[in-house]
Amino acid sequence: MELKEIKELIKLVSESGVSEVEVERGDFKVSIKKTAEKTTIVHAAPLTQSVPVALPVQSMSDNVQHINTEKLEAQSSTPAVSNLITVKSPMIGTYYKSPSPDKPAFLNIGDEIKPGKVLCIIEAMKLFNEIESEVSGKIVKILVENASPVEYDQPLFLVEPN
User: Fold this and answer.
1) pLDDT tens-place values along the chain, 162 residues long
2) pTM
3) Which DSSP symbol is given to 91?
4) CATH tag for 60-161 (out of 2.40.50.100, 3.30.565.10, 1.10.8.60, 3.20.20.70)
5) Which end of the chain is flanked by fewer CB atoms within 10 Å, N or C?
6) Residue 62 has what DSSP assignment?
7) Spatial separation of the C-alpha atoms in residues 143 and 156, rounded to whole Å
8) Phi and psi, residue 88, nearest 5°
9) 4: DSSP letter
């Protein structure tokens, strides 16, 4: 099951009156439960593993936030731009900047991005999830190192919007 399919299930549960959905495809099973405040993936793993996972889930658009540039200037040497956007990780996993070690990076500082452009890959539970842009603009800073672990909602990129 791909990340897009899981996101669609989460959206379905969030928008409908259903409080719980369980989907099983082959050897992969996903169970999504909705509480009054948030939607949570309770279990998402191949059936051969029994590792329960409880992650708060939000839409990708919730992972894009405007940040105050005064704080940025104090913390780093990033150029002062009035309205940088932080693109955050939608999941826990391992960040990869390219599709494989011998391939070029998906993006570099200064690259222009548009919605739908693949920014990176995050590996979670042996699944390689392509993370696509929700915004258009220019990459100002890449905040994570290749092959490093990332947390849910961790800032990955700073983008100067068009």
Assistant:
1) 677 777 777 777 777 767 777 777 777 777 777 765 554 454 455 544 444 444 444 444 444 444 444 444 444 444 454 689 999 999 999 999 999 999 999 999 999 999 999 999 999 999 999 999 999 999 999 999 999 999 999 999 999 998
2) 0.52
3) S
4) 2.40.50.100
5) C
6) G
7) 5
8) -110, 160
9) H
